[in-house]
Amino acid sequence: MSTGMYCGISGVKAYQTGIDVIGNNIANVNTYGFKSSRVTYRDVFYQTLASSSKSDATNSIGGANPSQVGYGATAATIDVLNTRAGMATTGNSKDCYINGEGYFVVKDGNGYLYTRVGSFGFDGDGNLVDGNKKLVCGTNGATKPTGAISTCEPIKVEDYSTYKNISIGSDGAITGEKDGEIKTLGYIALANIPNPSGLTQQGGSYYKAENNVANDSHPIKYYTPGVGETGSLVTSALEASNTDLATELTQMIINERGFQANTKIITVSDEMMETLVNMKR
Questions:
Q1: How far is the C-alpha of 98 from the C-alpha of 115, rounded, in Å?
Q2: Among the listed residues 189, 237, 240, 239, the one whose alpha carbon sits nearest the alpha carbon of residue 93
Q3: Which of 82, 117, 169, 262 could pair covalently with 173 via S-S, beta carbons 3.0-4.6 A apart?
Q4: pLDDT tens, residue by residue, 251-271
């Protein structure tokens, strides 16, 4: 098989990955909190037919550049674009938009997951849950943390049925009215993540912190909104998708043309091999 056909096959595979990523971006154009991704391409490796050489003035010989044949391209990286999207008002007083940096924290077994989607509500037991019924974390009680939160725990309002007009403030404070008195019931926490681009997507608008997110020198820290470089909350709103349809449709055309060009290379290489095979009948 010719090198050209290998190059064409590698190009087809690379651009198919690009189309897959673009398709996912467009599919989630109206998904709250969605962060679009991009693909970067790189050449693969080269066969050196002739190495470079220095000039030799004594023998009146000039230098020569290397002669190399490439073996195609590959999809090198798929990067999440953590640009902040706009705010979409919802009219639900318990929906929260983060006006700045940070992630909401939800309980996942013995660990945590992180999300930018603050679609919250309370269950019958007074647990603060998100749209997927996961427990939202922060602190319980009226005391507001003054710095980093040492223990981030699921938020639960005791005697939930006795409170009314429960609301969430811009600083994450959860307040409710009982016997005509406004009481602070807890605080929602935001995670300050050193390298948000290293988060692993889990589906359901969740991210998981794994190897390349934090280290001992720069750990993940938890704060109330507006503290520790985290943004404040805007209620009755959610974060919109950051998918830019104009960009995605343009990239789709570029990737489609690249895909078509590489299939043409495969066709031409096949025709050349057919001609070679038919030389002797």
A1: 10
A2: 237
A3: 169
A4: 999 999 999 999 998 898 888
Summarize pLDDT for 152-188 with one digit per residue, the tens.
Answer: 999 999 999 899 999 999 999 999 999 889 999 999 9
Give tens-digit pLDDT for 24-48. 999 999 999 999 999 999 999 888 8
Name which of 3, 148, 172 is nearest 96 in CA terms: 172
What HEC string does 72-104 produce?
A: CEEEEEEEECCCCCCEEECCCCCEEEEECCCEE
Contact assessment for residue 126 and residue 157, using Cβ atoms and an 8 Å cutoff: yes
Which tokens sit at 222? Answer: 């938890």
Burial of 66 (0-12, 13-18, 19+ CB in 10 A): exposed
Own/partner contacts of 253-262, CB < 8 Å, gap of 24 or more, are 255/15, 255/18, 255/19, 255/22, 256/15, 256/19, 258/11, 258/15, 258/18, 259/11, 259/12, 259/15, 259/16, 259/19, 261/11, 262/7, 262/8, 262/9, 262/11, 262/12, 262/15
Pairing of strands 73-80, 103-108: unpaired
Computed from CA positions of residues 15, 19, 24, 25, in that sequence, does the dihedral angle turn out positive or negative? Answer: positive
Q: How many helices, marked H, and strands, marked E, lie in the chain?
A: 2, 21
* CB half-sphere exposure, 32, CA atoms < 13 A: 19
Q: Is the pTM of this model over 0.85?
A: yes
